[in-house]
Amino acid sequence: MAPVQVKKICCIGAGYVGGPTCAVIALKCPDITVTIVDLNQARINAWNSADFDLPIYEPGLEDVVRQARGRNLFFSTDVDKGIKEADLIFVSVNTPTKKAGVGAGFAADLNYVELATRRIAAIAESSKIVVEKSTVPCRTAESMRTILEANSKPNCKFQILSNPEFLAEGTAIQDLLSPDRVLIGSLQTPEGKDACASLADVYAHWVPKDRILTVGLWSSELSKLAANAMLAQRISSINALSAICEATGANIDEVAHAVGRDSRVGSKFLRASVGFGGSCFQKDILNLVYLSESLHLPEVAAYWRQVVEMNEYQKRRFSKRVVDTLFNTITGKRIAVLGFAFKADTGDTRESAAISLVRDFVAERALVNIYDPKVPHEQIWLDLAEAMPTTPSATIQKQVTLSPSALEACKNAEAVVIATEWKEFKTIDWETVYAGMNKPAFVFDGRMIVDVEKLRNIGFKVTVIGRGERL
Ligand code: UDX
Ligand code: ADP
Question: Cα of 168 to ligand 1 centre, how many Å?
């Protein structure tokens, strides 16, 4: 049997992964009809909104959706119709870390994947290729296969593929348009290889063939966890060194530059920061830790766990440095936190270091003004409530103010804390900020973006991550 030529794709899950990925597939494959389905009506309405007020912010995304929506890209809540009509189904639902039960705090909650898979089995009337796109622990594809085979109709044959997503938020469209690689994992049977070829043909519409890697199912699933774990490990390594820099007077920027110039190390992902965030790094490492423990490999588990622990330490260390520098107390002092997203160019706040900082400042009874150019205010309130479950919301609302601009946030503050590297924070009018602040006026740069000399000349007391006082 020759590989099926894919004509209709359904993507279950219209989130950060499914939305941009399938929008780009639709853009690049005008001969394929792509329908993205989601149970969340509000999300689908936003994807369909007349003024393109999309549910996620991603540079370049609106342009892609404008070109493809209504042509061969559709958004719908009719999950069953999407499943029925498709030759190939991407499963891009959320896989948060489990909050309760076995593996709580570590293992992925596969409930959404399971429900979506069961729905496919119940609804499908013909054979389909089912592609696991969510970040999932190893062997999830096997579970999906078991569910599909146990529940499907006699004439339906399912092939499961793993096709992990490597896009980073903020650069998702660029990453999708010219990926370093596309990874497709399949069973090494003739049918598995045919399904793999069908999906490879979809990507071959725009991705050079030598960048489409086909591997076994388990290698594919593990590669996603491994790639994220190794990227996060580089950040934790440089952050560990940043603590040594602060204690010695070395400069982490200079150290990272010198180390990164070794072509064996490379210069990317060596930027010290207030700590990594995002929906993937911590979750995927904890998955790896859980997997290692399940496989009776405690040393391996401990090794990877340390990457997350170092990240927690980095966040704690930074808020402690703020308190220490402000004469050991911030009670009643106003602190401006610039940036709430986990990185620039996204409105996403999942695991953002800013959440931990604000939680620590509120616990110290400081007054906190937060400004972020993209994060919706209701999201900030939700994140703070979740981060401080025992603090009454009235207390949080009393101590925290959401400001409409960076300048506004800094007014009457004792200190400015930069938590996200938004471009606009590089061009702040620091003279005006200084004039409006209480003195001495402090700046804490958790992202190494300010011109230290310039700020010191204005009069600020400046503290930068990874730099000791003896500059
Ligand atoms: C990551 C992976 O890069 C991507 O391949 C995978 O598919 C999903 O997870 P993402 O979380 O969107 O992507 O963003 P990324 O650019 O990797 O940044 C993650 C966090 O690390 C951010 O908080 C960022 O600020 C931080 N970071 C990144 C650093 O602190 N220093 C660096 O040098 C790089
Ligand atoms: P990710 O970052 O992995 O894309 P998101 O939370 O942004 O995660 O998106 C996942 C989407 O999947 C959500 O919009 C959610 O409503 C949707 N979803 C979860 N389960 C199902 C399901 N069984 N059927 C359809 N959509 C689902």
Answer: 6
pLDDT digits (tens, 9 = 90+) for 309-333: 999 999 999 999 999 999 999 999 9
Domain ranges of the chain: 8-207, 281-464
CATH architecture, domain defined by 281-464: 3-Layer(aba) Sandwich (3.40)
Closest CA to 361 of 406, 313, 327, 399: 399
Considering only residues 210 and 95, tell me which one the structure prediction assigns the higher pLDDT. Answer: 210
At residue 135 the predicted structure's pLDDT band, cuts being 50, 70 and 90, is confident
What are the pLDDT digits (tens) for 277-302? 999 999 999 999 999 999 999 999 99
Q: Tell me, using a 6 A CB cutoff, whether residue 44 lines ligand 1.
A: no
Catalytic residue IDs: 280
Any ligand 2 atom below 6 A from CB of 38: yes
Whether the pLDDT of residue 394 is over 60: the answer is yes
Nearest ligand to the C-alpha atom of residue 166 = 1
Q: What is the pLDDT of residue 471?
A: 41
**Contact at 8 Å (CB) between 286 and 308?**
yes
List the binding residues: 13-18, 38, 43, 93-97, 134-135, 169, 280-283, 350
Place of tokens 């503050």: 413
Phi, psi of 161 (to 5 degrees): -120, 155
Ligand 2 centroid–CA 137 distance in Å is 17
Report residue 257 CA to chain centroid gap.
Answer: 25
Cα atoms found within 13 Å of the Cα of residue 401, Cβ hemisphere only: 17
pLDDT at 104: 87
Of 57, 92, 94, 379, the residue with max ligand 2 atoms within 8 A of its CB, to mutate for a pocket test, comes to 94
Annotated binding-site residues for NAD(+) read 13-18, 38, 43, 93-97, 134-135, 169, 280-283, 350
Q: How confident is the model over 347-362, as pLDDT tens digits?
A: 999 999 999 999 999 9
Q: Please tell me the distance from the alpha carbon of residue 198 to that of residue 193, in angstroms, as a whole number.
A: 9
281-464 has the same fold as 8-207: yes
Tell me which CATH code domain 8-207 carries. Answer: 3.40.50.720
Q: Please name the residue whose Cα sits nearest to atom 5 of ligand 1.
A: 166
Give residue 2's pLDDT: 83
Residue of 313, 342, 445 best suited for mutating to test ligand 1, as the one with most atoms within 8 Å of CB = 342
